[in-house]
Design goal:
D-amino Acid Aminotransferase, Chain A, domain 2; 2 domains; alpha+beta; 289 residues; binds N-(5'-phosphopyridoxyl)-D-alanine
Length: 289
Amino acid sequence: MIYLNGEWMPIEQARIPVLDRGFIFGDGVYEVIPSYSGHPFRLREHLARLQSSLDGVRIENPCSLARWDELVREIVAKNPWEDQGVYLQVTRGVAPRDHAFPKGVKPTVFMMSNPLTTPAPEQRERGVAAITVADNRWLRCDIKSVSLLANCLLRQSAVDAGAAESVLLRDGFLTEGSASNIFAVKDGVIITPPKSNFILPGITYDVVIELARANKLPLQIRQVSEAEVRDADELWLTSSTKEVLSISTLDGSPVGSGKNAGKPGPVAARMYQLYQDYKRTVMRAPARV
Ligand code: PDD
């Protein structure tokens, strides 16, 4: 079952007008919220990021926090899968095509849910291949916009090279992945770029940083140069669907050196475990926003 502008229906019955600005201009924002055994993960944080994306594109939030909370729980309850990925999207609405904002138009609200597919055990054990690509996106990557053409092109570059993700570099520094945040490890220190307009403030990124701090793992949040990316002992990508996943080769070369070269490293294994433990505690204590 999906939700569209106040109604529940099977996805096959859902229709939007061709003049929806999401379709015409990519004029909208979205969220992807994992739900584990009926418990939406970090819902408050996802809804806070939704609000800042809406503020960033000047769309008024069509629902209160309490209403979003209700809708997300409702869509999870209406769908059969144990773990789900809830997708929600708000566009500026339907209006004759004109770049300038229409007046008095109601935003389009769409939500769907899919089975949550986290990486297969084999990917966990071996890690995934990634390539480096120049980050040619706009300068508001902090907005979770549905205008994802640049991200799609960057991801396809990875697929064309037989890799799972593109690691993006801008002016000689790491930004993020095409659909993930990136962490490096050097000599036991976890390093990741700070939040800025160049990266999406990932919910998983925040969890990883919190877990590193809570467990006293050495952590530096600072600019990461291309040389440091190439010289890292470990590289990970993080996202709501990939959780914490090791990158084992970069541009065809093994990540790291010595006995762990080209294999997921020990810090990644520790963080993955901490993340799984954290997920379990959240599932035991359902909190409403
Ligand atoms: N993408 N950076 C980008 C560009 C992303 O698209 C995503 C997630 C992230 C990680 O954010 P989070 O930890 O909140 O999932 C970082 C989602 C999963 C998607 O577009 O499907």
